[in-house]
Write a structure and sequence with these properties.
Helices cover about 35% and strands about 20% of the residues. It is an alpha+beta fold. It is globular. The chain starts with a helix and ends with a helix.
């Protein structure tokens, strides 16, 4: 029993030490050294995401490694969304304009993920996202993959048939989470932004986080 308890204590100590080393490497000290943020709610520890496979609007794959090296804001939606999606992407575009001076190798990114792959073709998705800001990334996948990705972020979505869905299969909407996931330069979920969104505060937070984690 003594050896078992000692082993448990040792594992816990090693895990704590590893967490401290990672925090020192990427955030210049302990986990408490995260920059103070106005609108980004940072988690005590970033959450690793499982493997995922999305398709970008230009046809190229979007896998976890593609999101490394930058802070990334992830928002779920669909191009036929009447209000929440265009409003949120417009707010994010205003934030993006404020950090355009950051070098491209470090500049925060915005990723719009469509949860409506039936209607959102790559061309339609890309044109929609780039209409708000040229740097916005856009991606989608089949529904099972989207569900895995959304669940990993703590988000949900579902198809809501309209009154004439039986006669017109395109008569539907998509309910989806309205929050924005914040991924760190290692591709881990580091926090969350909840509506209502303040573009100036989002820009200030992402600029501070980028500065704190720059090589």
């Amino acid at each position: 029993m003594f050896n078992r308890n000692f082993g448990i204590v040792l594992v816990v100590a090693l895990a704590a030490g590893l967490g401290l080393l990672l925090a020192q490497k990427y955030f210049g000290g302990s986990a408490s050294a995260w920059p103070e943020t106005r609108t980004v709610r940072l988690y005590p520890q970033p959450r690793a995401l499982p493997d995922f496979h999305l398709r970008q609007s230009d046809g190229t794959p979007l896998v976890p490694g593609e999101l490394k090296g930058h802070w990334t804001l992830v928002f779920l939606g669909f191009t036929a969304c009447p209000d929440v999606c265009p409003t949120t992407l417009a707010d994010l575009a205003r934030a993006q304009k404020q950090w355009e001076a950051i070098p491209d190798t470090l500049r925060p990114r915005v990723l719009f993920v469509s949860v409506d792959p039936e209607r959102d073709t790559p061309a339609r998705l890309g044109a929609y996202a780039h209409g708000f800001h040229k740097d916005t990334l856009a991606a989608t996948a089949d529904v099972p993959e989207l569900e895995r990705f959304a669940t990993a972020l703590g988000f949900v979505f579902q198809k809501v048939p309209g009154k004439h869905f039986q006669e017109n299969p395109n008569d539907y909407s998509m309910d989806h989470s309205a929050a924005i996931a914040v991924l760190d330069p290692q591709g881990r979920q580091a926090g969350l932004i909840r509506p209502p969104f303040e573009p100036a505060a989002i820009a200030a937070d992402l600029q501070a986080l980028t500065k704190a984690t720059a090589p």
